[in-house]
Amino acid sequence: MEHSERDHDDGDPNDRDDGQPDPDRQPPDEPGAEGLVADERMANAGETASGSPPSSPAEANSSSEDGSASEDGSASEEGPGCMPAILAATVLMGIIGFVTCGVTTWMLYGKRTELAIRTLEETYLPGVEQSRLEPDEKRRVVSQLRDLIGELKRDQLEDWQAGGVMQRLVRTPVIQWGELNAIDAWLRRVDPATWALVGLEDVEDARRQIGRLRRAIELDQATGVDLNDVLKPVVVKDDSPLGRSLLDPDPLFAADAMISAEGGAAAEGGREPEARRDPDAAADDDAPPPVDATPADPAVRLGEEAAAIAESIVDVVRRARRVADRGEVPDREFPDVRIGTIVRRQIEAGIRDGSY
Description:
Blueprint: H1 2-9, H2 33-50, H3 57-76, H4 83-109, H5 112-129, H6 135-153, H7 159-171, H8 174-189, H9 192-197, H10 203-218, H11 224-230, E1 235-237, E2 244-246, H12 250-268, H13 298-302, H14 304-326, H15 339-353
Antiparallel strand pairs: 1-2
Helix pairs in contact: 5-6, 5-7, 6-15, 7-15, 8-10, 10-14, 11-14, 12-14
């Protein structure tokens, strides 16, 4: 009896003895709203994993945001790519280039004597032999160059001396010197009246500018580059060994001879040239002075080709003046100097002092 009573007491206290439910008893907990939301999320996750589309726009937005976040994470996890390899290769190629240049420079620096001999024999000496230098001056320069080549072959000069001599010889306008002498000869040959037609009123002043340019060369105030610029108006390229030559002055000489002949014939007849007389002028003493009917255009008197040559020579004179002024050479006449003397001085200076 006691056991049954204990069992009866251990029952639910909310149960009434009469078998009726207790009105104060709470019903068992049912799944609420939070449980339903959790279930829906689990279902949506299952559908997303299986590839089924989202059931609502909110779910679609949520899934797209999750996808973009995953893509950003994967992009941020990518490495630097091939950029380090490219930079390393660039640096390596730069180092190799610097080393190659250094080794090449060192090799050339140590072979200056050999390079000087080759340059003199294959380029410089043939150019002097083909130049416009006077025959005796040309022989003198060629002799000096052959003596220099002999000294270099016998190793009588060190590399720094050979390099210094070659640097000075290359700067010295030996070939251009002969061309400058040719321009001076043309100025002397053509009559001053012909030069006046192209604006050159003072031929002696023009020749003085050529002399000033020679003086600038003697004083190392003008180089071969300067002479190339001065002579540019009268130089043409050709297939000669030098690759250049002066303009042919024969049309200018022919026009000058024709003008001189006209002037001589008029002088022998005791009258002005026909081109300078006015046919309508009166014969009495009260007649006005003769009208100068000479054409103002030099191309009409000289011809187009001769006028172009004369104007080119006048341009050379202007350029010579400019180079002499830059070298601060006084505007006066100077004693004639020989290019052989200048070459000898440059060789001696290169042996004694090396490069500039």
